[in-house]
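Quick start: load a record and inspect it. Here is Globin:
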Amino acid sequence: MSKHTLHRLAFDTSGVTYEESLEATNLQPSIYERIGSDGFENLSESFYDRVFADNEAQWFLNIFSSSTRQEAVENQYRFFVQTFGGPDLYRQKKGKYTRLVGRHANYNIGSKAAFRWVEHMHKSIDEHEKLKDDEIASEALKKYFAFTAHYIVAAMEYMRSDQLSGGTQIDAGRIW
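Running the structure step on this input writes:
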C-alpha cells in the first residue's frame, strides 16, 4: 500500500488532505510558541478528562484500558510538544521514530473510534484557554488531528507484525 493511497483513504473519511494536515506543523510562530508547554499539557489533560468521563461510549474508554490516565496524558503531551515545534520530548522517551500507526496497531480500532477521538479533541481545542482565541492554530490542529486519526485507521489494515511498536500482537478481539 502506497502512502499516496493511504493519504487518499484518510482524506475520504476525514475530509482533510495530507497537505492541509501539515499546516499545524508549519505555522509561524509554531503552535508550541503560541501556547507553550503548559498549553499542550492543558490540552492533553482536557482531552483525557473527556475520554475518561465518556459514559455514553464505554467501548471507546475501553480502548485506553492498557494505560493509566496519567501515562496517556504524558505520552500525548510529549508527542504534541515535539510535533508542534517544541523540544523532542517524545523522542527522549519513545525513541527516534513516532510510529503512530505501529503504536496503535495492538488496538483494532476503526473509523467509529477515530471519529469519537476527533470529537473529544475538537471540544478540548474549542474550550482551550489559548486556542479558543487563535482561530488559525485551532483550525490547523483540528485538520491535523482529523487526518491523522483516520490515517492511523487506514494504515493499520496493512501493518505487518514486525511494524508493531506499542505491543507485540494486534488484539483481534476488540474492534472499535
